[in-house]
Amino acid sequence: MKVFSVLLPLLSTASAFSPSSSRRATLGATMPEAVSLKKAFQQQQQLEHASALSLLTRPEEEMATLEVLNNSNSVGTSATSTEGEWIDESKKIELILLSIWLVSLSAFILINNFHGPWPLAMKAVPERVFFLSHMIGGMLFGGGIILTTCIERLVAKSANAPVLQFWFDKVPLLDGLIVVPALTVSMVSGTGLSIVRYGGLNIAPPHVGAIFWTLIAFMSWWAVTDLTTQGSALTAVNEMYSKYQQGDVEGLETPKVVVDRHVSNVVSCFFVVLLYSMMVLKPGTFFPFPWN
User: Of 17, 111, 199, 281, which is least packed with CB atoms within 10 Å of its CB?
Assistant: First the structure.
C-alpha cells in the first residue's frame, strides 16, 4: 500500500505530460484563434473585393456625374438664352405700346391746341373734378420720377446683385402702374381745365401751352433715353446675378448701362422741376416770356 501510494502521484504526473493530453490542450487553446483568423481573412477578402469593384465602377460614376453637370449647364444656358429672348420680346411689345400711347396723347394735345375743344363732352365736366385729377396725377407723376431716380442711384451704388435684379425687374411695373397713368391723367385733366377755365387750350394763357409742350418734350426724352435702356440694363443685371448665384462674387460691379442711366434720370427730374415752375410762376402771365 505504501508503494502504491507513492507510485500513484508519479503516474498522474506522467499522464499530465503525455503527448495525447498536451495535443488536446493545444487544440483547445488554439481553436478560437483559428476561428478569428478565418474571420479576419474573410473580411480582408471582402474589403479587397469591394475596393476592386469601386475601381471598376468609379469611371462609370464619374462619367454619369459629368453627364449630369453638362446637362445642368446646358439647361442653364438654354434657360438664360430663353430668358434673354423673352426680355427682348417683352421690351419690343412694351415700346410698341408706349409709342402708341405717346402718339395718341400727343395727338389729343395737338388737336386741342390747334383745332379747339375736343371732345366737346369735356365742357360738361365740373372744374373741381379736373382740378383734383390734375393735382393727383401731377403729384404721382412728379413724385414717381424723382423718387425712382433717387432709389435707382442708391441701388446702382450698392453693387448688390440681388438688389439690382429685384429693382430692374420691378421698374417696368412701376412705370406701367404709376408714372404712365399719372402722366396721362395729368395731361387730360389739364386740357379739361384749360377748356373749362379759358374756353380751350388754343386760347389759354401762354404758360398753359408752354407746359404742354414741355410735357411732350419730357415724354419724348423719357421714351428715348429711359425706356429703351431698361431692357439692356435688365439683361446685364441678370448676367451679374447669375455669376453671383454661381459663387463668383469677386470683382462684381454694377453694369455700365445701369450707371449711365443716372444722367437720363436726372434730366427727367429737371423736366419735372421746370413743369412745376411754369405752373406756379405762370410765365407770360405774371411776367413776359424772355423771348417776347
Answer: 17
262 CB-near residues (< 8 Å, 6+ apart):
149, 152, 153, 156
283: left (phi over 0), alpha (psi -120 to 50) or beta: beta
Q: Measured between alpha carbons, how far is 44 from 261 in angstroms, rounded to an integer?
A: 71
Per-residue cell: 106: 400727343
Q: Of the candidates 202, 224, 218, which has an alpha carbon nearest to the alpha carbon of residue 272?
A: 218
Buried b / exposed e over 167-190, threshold 16 CB at 10 Å, is: bbeebbeebeebbbebbbbbbbbb
Return the C-alpha cell found at 73.
449647364
- Strand, helix or coil at 288? coil
| pLDDT tens-digit readout, 67-100 | 555 555 454 445 455 655 666 677 778 778 888 9
Report the predicted TM-score, pTM, of the whole model to 2 decimal places.
0.67
Look at the block and give the residue holding cell 481573412: 41
